[in-house]
Amino acid sequence: MVQKAKILLVDDRPENLLALEAILSALDQTLVRASSGEEALKALLTDDFAVILLDVQMPGMDGFETAAHIKRRERTRDIPIIFLTAINHGPHHTFRGYAAGAVDYISKPFDPWVLRAKVSVFVELYMKNCQLREQASLLRLQLEGGRPSADEARESAGLLAELSARLAAVEEQAEALSKQLDETADAAAVATAAHLERKLTGLRRALDALEPGSGSVAG
């Protein structure tokens, strides 16, 4: 059974949380509510999330401050944050969101289909990352188990090749996205692409470290 990804919904208004749940329920993932920045930070201490939908205007700790805390923690700093706001004070307000670490900044009222599509991208990326890491971990354990037999060596080489091919396909999609951004120069999309490139670079390095002769696996 494929484990579902967790999506953190942060808003101080129950009706907004209910609306987000209605929009995102079609993704069939685990939706976790938080009614404040403090509650969101508490949830992030124990669970891993694919993406965070964070309301900007909240009493006490607002969205910007909450995002700053999230980005300061090593465990959570790479989780993509989508800011949701009912106000629009122009470019300065939007850029403040990106400066706080958001990968996207959406003004209310938003198009439910657009929001669902954007969230699904990060869920898919998260699931692929989990699958790649799990397979890489299994391969590392296999390699660390001592000198493999000829059959085990062939199996390991085949798994490495499969992992590399899967990652290459995602890298190709990311490259195509970057080329499109050169033409549109949309700030939100640029931030999203930059986050994706960092994730892919980390995965590629981890995979390369498993290659025979890399020296990273103890014999």
UniProtKB/TrEMBL annotation:
Residue ranges occupied by any Response regulatory domain in the UniProt entry: 6-123
Residues where 4-aspartylphosphate is found: 55
The keyword Coiled coil belongs to this UniProt entry's keyword annotation: yes
Highest taxon in the source lineage: Bacteria
Entry keyword annotation includes Transcription: no
Keywords attached to this entry: Coiled coil, Phosphoprotein
Signal peptide limits: none
This protein's name: Two-component response regulator
Taxonomic classification: Bacteria, Bacillati, Actinomycetota, Actinomycetes, Kitasatosporales
